[in-house]
Amino acid sequence: MDIDARIKRRQRRTDGRRLVEDYESLSPVAHVDEPSDRGPTLERLLDHLDPVFDGQLPGNAYVSGPAGAGKSAVVTALFSHLDRLSTETRSIIHTSTRPATPTSPAFAYVDLRETTSEFAFYHAVLDALVEESVPDHGISTAELRERLHALLGDSGTGVVVVVDHVGEPEGTDDEELVELFAGLPSNVSWIAVGRRDPEDVPLTEYTATEIGVDRYRRETLVDLLMTRASLGLARQGLDHELARQIAEWAEGNAHDAMAALFVAAVRATEDGRARLTEGDVTAAVEEVPRESVSLGRVLALPANKQLVLRELVDLDPGERASVTATTEAIGAVPAVDLSPGTVKRYLYEMAEVGVVERVQSEVTNEQGRPPSRVELRFSPTAFRRLYDLRG
After folding, report:
1. Model confidence over 325-341: pLDDT tens digits?
2. CB count in 10 Å sphere of residue 304
3. Which pLDDT score is estimated for 97?
4. Which partner for 358 in 159, 194, 284, 372 could form a disulfide, CB atoms 3.0-4.6 Å apart?
């Protein structure tokens, strides 16, 4: 008897007017356990990882593909399953052609959006391999690396580490990442995941395999939207034709498609509708910028920068007419305990990495120079709701 499930079903029961039943299922930053239409990519990854099933380490690999192609979704889902197998058995089930029972390598996942230093990198790998808590303070990077070498020195099986979001603007650069990998024990292999073409990535000098991931096909993206809607919305909350409109607009980018669905659902909910309308979808796709920055990147920013963005999305266009006006408007909010200089610096830093954009105004200021207004590179509605749900 699953009492929690029974309670949750009653909590989600509606009177026919409630549209969103589970925001997590609709979230563009959440991954499902079984990604849609990524079977070929999954098979290529399993082909590369095949030595694992004989208790051996595979070579290094680089997985690449455009934004929203499902790279992170398939890698995290696969590693979650493999890690459970490794944790539960620490051995590979043998067949008649494999008389021995080799020990399975362990698995670790590192997200470079959240792991932004040498200390954090080795901490993340070590923390994934041990049951006890790894200290965040009072220990040096060298000590962490020594602990990792000592731990794996006692194991002949080693570890496969997947490093996600390689090459993003605010993340670890190529040379630093090569040095981080070089600092790992010899019985560690890695899989790097990023958007850039393999020939543009220095890491591929050290890889045995390169795996490309294509954009979603339109029909598959429709299925993905309908599946996620069935988990997160009330029955018949999303019409198939509206899902097709979102998929056609998104052009194979699952992140943008899910962001549009999320925004449309928030809009419909706020207006008290029990299902999405064409107006909700039209407004949503107009709000999500083309070539938008991933909401996962935005929500991985330091807390104070997210706080600045949370206030920024609520400003009127006039309050964002210039960086100075934006700084003053955000600084006037009591909840923002930051100096104007810090707020302005954050805005400039986030513009440099593409989270926001400084767009030159057509109106000149008193000095004769046109000011730069601050524009968002992500959906304000989606960020606002995701931020508030996490808070």
Report:
1. 999 999 999 999 999 99
2. 14
3. 38
4. 372
